[in-house]
Amino acid sequence: MPTRALLAAVAVSLAALAGCSEGGKSSTVPVSGTVTYKGQPVTDLKILLTPASGRPADGVLDSKGHFDSLTTDKPGDGAVPGKAKVSFSQKPATPASGAVSSVDTYAPPKPTGLPEKYNSSQTSDIEVTISDKGEKDLQIKLTE
To answer: How far apart are CA 73 and CA 55, in angstroms?
Structure first.
């Protein structure tokens, strides 16, 4: 039986090293910051941080270009530590009260007002590094 206990301890240690928490959810840290484009705040867009491995985190930029309460697994849980590509999209429209939405309706993405390369994590050249303790004032400065 000591072998089973040793194997269980090794499995738990490997899961911790892999950055997983209970239930297969990602280990996340709080992240907040500001996004500017050519020195002006980027406003009212959705921001997406896509790590090389793990789940992406998203949030919303306010009227001053600030974001906080990023979400990976549950609202406001933060982002996975490490390097992540940054991209942007329009915020999803909020249906009017009582409105019925159709999952069969497709609407192409609306322009963000930023260069097209920033609309996808695959084409964005903006990469940030999230520390193991999180980021309280991450500054993302877009140029061209």
So the answer is: 8
Where does the chain have alpha helices with state H? 2-17
Q: Which fold has domain 26-92+111-144?
A: Immunoglobulin-like (2.60.40)
Q: Is the pTM of this model over 0.90?
A: no
Q: What are phi and psi of 93, to 5 degrees?
A: -70, 140
Q: What is the pLDDT along the chain (144 residues), one digit of tens a residue?
A: 455 544 444 444 434 444 444 445 569 999 999 999 999 999 999 999 999 888 999 999 999 999 998 999 999 999 999 999 999 999 765 555 555 555 555 555 677 889 999 999 999 999 999 999 999 999 999 987
CA atoms within 13 A on the CB side of 4: 1
d(CA 140, CA 110): 22
Sketch the domain layout of the chain as residue ranges: 26-92+111-144
